[in-house]
Automatic annotation (TrEMBL):
Radical SAM core domain: residues covered: 181-395
Domain B12-binding: start-end pairs: 8-141
Cofactor(s) it depends on: [4Fe-4S] cluster
GO cellular component, one term: cytosol
CDD domains according to UniProt: Radical_SAM, radical_SAM_B12_BD
Protein's UniProt keywords contain Metal-binding: yes
Gene3D superfamilies attached to this UniProt entry: Aldolase class I, Cobalamin-binding domain
Keyword Transferase applies: yes
PANTHER family for this protein: ANAEROBIC MAGNESIUM-PROTOPORPHYRIN IX MONOMETHYL ESTER CYCLASE-RELATED, BLL1977 PROTEIN
GO molecular function: cobalamin binding; iron-sulfur cluster binding; magnesium-protoporphyrin IX monomethyl ester (oxidative) cyclase activity; metal ion binding
Source organism per UniProt: Acetobacter senegalensis
Entry protein name: Radical SAM domain protein
Amino acid sequence: MKVLAVHPSALMYTKVFLRLEPLGLELVAGAARDAGHDVRIIDLQVETHKDYWKLVHDFQPDAVCFSGSYLANVPEIIDLCRATRLHYPNIFQFIGGHSVSFIARDVLALSEGAVNCILKGEGDASVGTLLKAVEDGTDILEVPGVVTMDGEGPPPTFVKSLDDIRPARDLLRHRNKYFIGTLDPAASIEFARGCPWDCTFCSAWTFYGRSYRTASPQVIADELEEIKEPGIFIVDDVAFVHEEHGMAIANEIKKRGIKKEYYLETRADVLLRNKEVFKVWSEIGLSYIFIGMEAVDEEGLKQFRKRVSLDKNFEALDYARSLGLIVAINIIADPDWDRSRFEAVRQWCLEIPEIVNISVTTPYPGTEIWHREARRLTTRDYRLFDIQHAVLPTKLPLPEFYEELVKTQQVLNTKHMGWQALKDTAGIAGRLLLKGQTNFVKMLWKFNSVFNPKLQLADHMRKARYLMPIQPDVVKSIDRKDLYVHGPGGRKTRALDDKTEKFVDETRMGENV
């Protein structure tokens, strides 16, 4: 079969600070190609709908697969599916990815028959089976993870081994368009999949059933040697949870003489526990590290169920600085913040050298916050669920909330963007421009055109074609196991030694599942 894999357009945040290659879609495309199919990829982050229609016309695919990893992309995906069904009624259309796995039936209902099925869970595990069923004309409801309006197939399954899957990087056009900070261009890679923690605002653990699986250091090094881009974004939800795994990868990289520059995300307590790992990585190319602090007080940390004290967070920042790493942190703005709270956070941000990102508390399907707060939503417009819009009632009038939010986000702009950033990174910027790489330099002045309180407020005024279903007023107590896409498999699904497993349990606040 001829298969077209599609990534939707960029979201608000990714229009400025980063643009990442669609690794998940490349993995699905790679699995489909390994199953014998002719595959193409188009990424609408860097191409247009006009490009999509031209590719559909020229390639004449038998199936089109859409990546539904972000809730805010749902309307665009449904529009494309409905238009594709109108013009090409015989194409089999399906959607996979993180977000749609939690809302499969809602998306199918909105598509009004344009979408044949949703593929829940890890798409690279079952896309080959689904395409074979379509090709052979057999019942797709026998495929793990498939959901249609007529029913649901067996539970989704994991790929047998992360060592056996390869992203179809060669199918992605315009690879020079992907970057994160000064890593321009940058490719993405995964060392591990899943998260053993259980933060209330996050759906990584509910998607993967609190599993944590790793690829072998040798396979990771093989992939790094094949990647042409000098910058590497490590996509793991929490990098280097397992000390021995992180060190083994570093040793393999050193042995082979691989020279790259790395960006990763981790937790403060993981950084402090595995200091030697991060020290070694800082010596082989790690330059950026993102730490999700989420809150600057103990009450906020408790709300997000992060058992990391403020002292530990600040100790982690100090240690990262001592390694010469550029540190970015995330703070979640609560809708209940008033002007004084915003001002206190602004002052705190100005006192530290780190890059600070401010996002907005957003209840996503698959998170515990969703089940607690979904009946309080002030909007059901999928497009606004992007962690940059307030979708819950705000203590301040909404226009004032956005003014304070953007003013606080402006701290980032003042400290790290515009002319000051260009001055601090003049050498890097010059080298990038000489190589024809303009992503980083262009983003330095984009902030005010994207982050604008009037524009954010106007987004609420747009007529929404697709709305989330109204949530019931009365909800029974939630069994946390019901939140999972991949059912919890317990300890055996986590590639952790006993000491690390104990550490995880001591630093999380949920039930043992």
